[in-house]
Fold:
Amino acid sequence: MVAGDFYNQVYEIVRLIPFGRVTSYGAIAKALGSGKSSRLVGLAMNHSHNVLPQVPAHRVVNRNGFLTGKHHFTDEKSMQQLLEAEGIQVLDDQIQDFNRLFWDPLKEL
DNA sequence: ACAGTGACTACAT
DNA sequence: AATGTAGCCACTG
Structure:
């Protein structure tokens, strides 16, 4: 298992997401300089469950605010529960007020 | 070294 | 406006 540098870059960004905020894969990819590598961000998250320190992957969703990756969590509902624990409302696998909670690493950093 | 894969996004019809 | 298709790049076998 070789952790690519790209993966570590992704983990670093995701760990910077503030409590109660969320972001999208594309935003992270763009922050890394490869706006078209959004899928790579997803692959990185796929490995994130073995990465330390733990990565708040539940704060990362697709650009529509849907919890597309919830199936990859230990339990499918854990992602929604984690978000709700941060005060984020999740309805039908979609984050409510996503536009308001969106955290853009490019602008915030 | 080649081809397949994927937690996405943007463009086209 | 909604659905379908294609591009995209790094990783794995």
Observations:
- Chain A is about 40% helix and 5% strand.
- The first helix of chain A runs from residue 5 to 15.
